[in-house]
Design goal:
Largest sheet: 8 strands, parallel, barrel
Number of helices: 11
Number of domains: 2
Low-confidence stretches: 1-15
Number of strands: 16
Helix content: 25-40%
Radius of gyration: 20 Å
CATH topology of the largest domain: TIM Barrel
Mean pLDDT: 94
Strand order of the largest sheet: 1-2-4-5-6-7-8-16
CATH superfamily of the largest domain: Glycosidases
Strand content: 25-35%
Shape: globular
Structural class: alpha/beta
CATH architecture of the largest domain: Alpha-Beta Barrel
Length: about 325
């Protein structure tokens, strides 16, 4: 049935392969211990690269400082090369000077090398959802980092693809367009903020093929529960799945939300009575559809597809579907 589905999609978009794809994954946890299933996924699909988030730079608004949670142990997997990623919260650019941010980054990348987390400073990917107000400072930061990092890349959101004249093109060797998180999860009028092929197309169509930078692609392989308290978002519950719900605690409503019948804990998340959770995940047939669109419209000889993320239960629970996507383009 799955082969038939992918065959139909190929028929709809054309079967002529225009882009050769390499596949890799993100690892977005500070704990780098892999399960056997995660190791098996890497081995079976011959994945040779993992993009490891080595630290975050976040603004602590309570005391106006920078918090810097980071990985403490090496990513251990034979025949897999680790590429470091750092996340910079956009608010940081509004509250701290360029020199302070640059020194923090270079010092902690050097520490990651010294501690054996990464091998060298040859590669770095920077993840930041910059805005028009922070564009100049962020781009200057990337220019300064490129003097320190040999191969520098940056993530690019879909709105930055569509509105490139306003948001600008980051001064890096390569971009990674993130085709997920298309809406605000706080919006109670939507059913899925993570991924929709049709919504992604509104940003990509007519824009992707003309973006003036070599691009790789990040595609979704994760789920979460959007936790609402009194109708307002309280938190995102990573790896939430309805099968883990105690039916004595919650009931599913007609609109797909799960409503708490009493106060309880879901893992470490406190759920109050009448709180609601919306389960969100990408539909794998839609991810396959996006792959075929990219194959025809990315307008590059080659590109890397990075699944976000290996540390998600959703990827492992749906590994057959993702493995089929990978095998189609291997």
């Amino acid at each position: 049935m799955k082969q038939f589905l992918i065959g139909c999609i190929m028929f709809c978009f054309g079967c002529q392969p225009n882009t050769s794809f390499e596949f890799s994954t993100y690892w977005w946890k500070h704990n780098t211990q892999l399960s056997q299933q995660q190791k098996d996924f890497l081995i079976k699909n011959k994945i040779k690269k993992v993009y490891l988030k080595i630290f975050d730079l976040k603004w602590n608004e309570h005391n106006n400082t920078i918090s810097l949670p980071k990985v403490q142990a090496k990513f251990e997997q034979e025949n897999v090369k680790v590429y470091p990623v750092i996340y910079i919260e956009n608010k940081l650019l509004l509250n701290f000077d360029l020199d302070t941010i640059l020194k923090l980054i270079t010092r902690n990348v050097d520490l990651a090398v010294e501690n054996g987390i990464i091998e060298n400073t040859n590669n770095l990917q920077v993840d930041c959802d910059w805005t028009i107000s922070t564009k100049e400072k962020y781009f200057n930061l990337l220019i300064l980092l490129s003097n320190y990092i040999e191969h520098l890349s940056a993530t690019i959101r879909l709105h930055q693809i569509k509105y490139v004249k306003a948001t600008g093109v980051p001064p890096v060797e390569k971009g990674v367009v993130m085709i997920y998180n298309l809406d605000s999860p706080a919006d109670t009028n939507i059913r899925n903020s993570i991924f929709s092929f049709e919504k992604a197309l509104l940003y990509l169509k007519g824009n992707l093929e003309h973006y003036p930078l070599q691009l790789d692609v990040a595609l979704p392989a994760f789920s979460w529960g959007v936790h609402f308290h009194h109708g307002k978002i309280k938190s995102l519950i990573a790896d939430f799945h309805p099968s883990d719900i105690d039916r004595a605690n919650m009931v599913q409503k007609k609109n797909g939300y799960f409503k708490a019948k009493k106060a309880h804990f879901y893992n470490t998340h406190r759920i109050s009575i009448r709180d609601e959770i919306r389960y969100e995940h990408p539909y794998t047939h839609a991810v396959a559809k996006m792959m075929h669109y990219l194959n025809n419209y990315l307008n590059q000889d080659s590109a890397e597809v990075i699944f976000f993320s290996l540390n998600s239960d959703f990827l492992i629970n749906n590994k057959d579907s993702y493995e089929e996507i990978i095998s189609t383009y291997k």
